[in-house]
Amino acid sequence: MRSTVDMAPSAVVETPNVTDPSLYLQGIPHGRLAQLRAIGGLAWHPYEDGGFWAVTRHAEARYVSRNPELFSSAIGHTNLWDLEADALEARRSLIDTDAPDHTRLRRLVAGAFTPKNIRRWEQVVREITIELLDEFVVQGGGDWVDMVAAPMPIQVILTMLGVPIEDSNYLVELSNYLVEGTGDAQSIPPDAFGNTTELRLLPFNSPASHALFEYGEGMRQQRRHDPQDDLVSHLVQAEYEGERFSLSEYRNMFHLLVFAGNETTRTALSHGAMALAANPHEWRRVLDDPSMIESATEEILRWATPVMHMRRTATTDTELAGTEIAEGDKVVMWYASANRDEAVFEDPFRFDVGRADNEHFAFGGGGPHLCLGAFLARLEVTVLLEEMAKRSLCLEQTTEPVRARSNFVHGVLSVGMQPRSDR
Amino acid sequence: MSDNLVRVAVDQELCIGGGICEMLEPEVFELDDDVVISSVISNGLLPRNRAEVVVDRCPGQAIAIVEENLDKER
């Protein structure tokens, strides 16, 4: 399968489509991604009126991630489609920047997400988890997403940010509209929440983003005068080499924290529950030996791949896997494929809670854009598993999952679960 | 010999504060929570096989093996 530049251009090879969002209603199109992995070099995947290089193998996704000077996050967009220049500017977050802007922005916020500072939140995560799990058991189960997977991470991030408890339902509502905005169906009108901004200038083209910006700005004003021990106060005060966040940077950071703190871990906890229910012998291994919770957490992250791809744009003519890439070409790393790469993971379609050396790309393929919330996400999955193990709580899936119609987030909208305590 | 002791070091210009080193080898690396840059907090010695993993996983490619075959220092 080794490819060379003088092979027939990949355009003559039939490229299986992996971007049609409706495919994802049945789950990740793993068969098609496996076909792409097997193509020598990189496959050119048509998209809208252009296309992109599909990077589907682990080794090459790692290379693209770790060479940001060749593969930019700041040009075009980090999603498949380009944004117009003014929209890109208005919506630019940590995700859509390159060094040195990225380094500056990341340093302003990263201190709150180090392993040690995340461990300070363990008790908060545990209390929230206990309350939700106990209710789930008392009710005899129900929609796992609604009862556990969605509320746990959103309550945690809102607590961390310092959002007052009486506002949390409003923020959850906004956040859910944003999740909707990652697909192609918006259920709210453009002027919802008093929005007057053109939708293309708002993250996820959603009027809920306007409301979230407004809310974040209100908190910023308040914390400026009355700092608390919370993340918004940290953002307001953060300084790196004498510089602080601009208003636009702050708004987009607040927005990113609310969205990413909600959607991605929700997905991990949903797919995690489904995997444990489908593989009771694997959960039994964890119950028999709780020291496996650490490796089980990593396996759930690999299994779930909450964000299925990210895009970069080539800054120069370059070459990868024997394929010539031109300056300006879109290059898309398919984490969902890299996480099932048979060249790296033994028996990749087996859910194995004891998997060793699990270099999954649930948080990206390394490099400067490594997920900021990685240790928070790990803590949330780990605490859930610990609390389930304490209760010897086994899960039984009662309904088929309803999946998000999205090629970007691996979302689960609902899935029925019931407790089954068999010890 | 894969478990020969080697010494590792962090290039603080390259460090992105990802925290992977502290997760993998908490006895050797620690992330400063203010500047979010990793430092070696011990004598920096690791068995070669473990050092290679942490070098390979570092998202900023900031960790290197700087001295080899240090078994006699143990």
Task: Give a brief description.
Chain A has 423 residues and is an alpha+beta fold. Helix content of chain A is 44%, strand content 11%. Chain A has one domain: Cytochrome P450 (Cytochrome p450).
**Main sheet summary of chain B:** 3 strands, antiparallel
Topology order of chain B in helix (H) and strand (E) letters: EHEEEHE
Question: What is the number of E strands of chain A?
Answer: 12
- What is the tally of helical segments of chain B? 2
How would you classify the quaternary structure? Answer: heterodimer
Beta-strand content of chain A: 5-15%
Biggest interface goes to: A-B, 20 and 18 residues
Give average pLDDT of chain A, whole number: 92
CATH class of chain B: Alpha Beta
How many domains in all of chain B? 1
Mean pLDDT of chain B: 90
CATH fold-type name of chain A = Cytochrome p450
Point out poorly predicted stretches of chain B. Answer: none
- The backbone outline of chain B, from C-alpha atoms, is globular
The strand line-up of the biggest sheet of chain A is 1-2-8-5-3
Record field, number of beta strands of chain B: 5
| Strand neighbour order, sheet with most strands of chain B | 4-1-5
* Main pleated sheet of chain A: 5 strands, mixed
Percent helix of chain A, as a range, is 40-55%
How would the blueprint of this fold be written?
The complex is a heterodimer of chains A (423) and B (74).
Chain A: H1 30-38, E1 43-47, E2 50-55, H2 58-65, E3 71-72, H3 85-91, H4 101-110, H5 115-119, H6 122-138, E4 142-143, H7 144-149, H8 151-161, H9 168-182, H10 207-225, H11 231-237, H12 247-278, H13 280-288, H14 293-304, E5 309-314, E6 318-320, E7 323-325, E8 330-334, H15 335-338, H16 374-390, E9 394-397, E10 402-403, E11 412-414, E12 416-420
Parallel strand pairs in A: 2-8
Antiparallel strand pairs in A: 1-2, 3-5, 4-12, 5-8, 6-7, 9-12, 10-11
Helix pairs in contact in A: 6-8, 6-16, 8-12, 9-10, 9-12, 10-11, 10-12, 12-14, 12-16, 14-16
Chain B: E1 5-10, H1 20-24, E2 29-31, E3 38-40, E4 45-47, H2 48-57, E5 63-67
Antiparallel strand pairs in B: 1-4, 1-5, 2-3
